[in-house]
Amino acid sequence: MADYRDVNRANWDERVPAHLASPEYSVSQFYADPGFLSGVVRFDTALLGSVAGLRGVHLQCHIGTDTVSLARLGASMTGLDFSGPAIAAARELAAGTGADASFVQSDVYDVVEALGAVHGDVLGAGGFDFVYTGIGALGWLPDVRRWARVVAGLLRPGGRLFIREGHPMLWTLADPGDDGLLVVRYPYFEQAEPQVWDEGGTYVTTDAVFEHNVTHEWNHGLGEIVTALLDAGLTVTGLAEHDSVPWNALPGVMTESDGEWRLTDNPARLPCSYTLQAVRRPLGRLGSR
Asked: Stretch 30-51: mean pLDDT, rounded?
C-alpha cells in the first residue's frame, strides 16, 4: 500500500486552487477587509477567548485563512501543513494582508523537529502559548496518541490546546439515502487500517475536476482523544459538543444557518462537532492526571 501521506498530500495539493477560488474560503474578503475573520474562527471566538500577545501554532493549517484570522485577533502565529501548494498560498495571503503569521511545510508528526530547525529551540520544543487545530484535521492522522505527544511537545507548561473537530459519531454515519435515515456504518474507534475512499469533488463549491481522489482516513473516539491528551501530560479544561458543523456533512438532511449546518429534523439527535481545550501540566506533573 502506498504511504498514506503521499496519497493524501496528492489529494490536498490538487484542491488548493479550487479552495482559493471558492466562496467558502472567502480569500478576497481577507484582502478587502482588514477585520475579516474566517467563519471557523468566528465560531470559535466565544470559547477561545483572547489570544492577543500570545504565540500560537496552527497544525494542519491548509491555505492559512484560519491562521491569519488568529493573527488578526492579536496572536503571533505559525502555521504548518504538509502540502507545499497550501503553504505557498498561506504565505501569499499573510504577506498580502500584513498578518503576523509565518508558515512551515511539515508533516504533523514531524512538527517539533521542523520548527526547531527553522526557529531554534525557542519555538521548537515547548515554546508556544497555544496550539490550535481547526475542524477536519484529526481524521487524516492514524495515531491520535502520537498527535497528543506532538501537542505536548509544542506547548510551554501552562500552554493551551484548542481544537474544534468533527464529532467521531458524525464520522460513523453513511450518507443518508432517500429515506433520510441516519445509519451507523463506519468505525467509531481508531483502527490500525484506514478507511480508504475514492471520491471526486471537494467540500467547497467548484466546477473543477480532479485526478487524485483517493484518501486514507481514520476516526478517533472521543475517549481515545481525551485519554491520549491526559497521557501526554495535558489536563482537559473544557469539552463542549455542538449540533452543527461548518459544511453540509450529511447532504439532504441538513439545513444551513449563519454558516453552520444542522440536522433539519430534530438537530438535538446528533453531536456534529466538539470543542476540546486542555492545558499542559507543569513538567514535574506529567505523569499525573
From this structure: 97
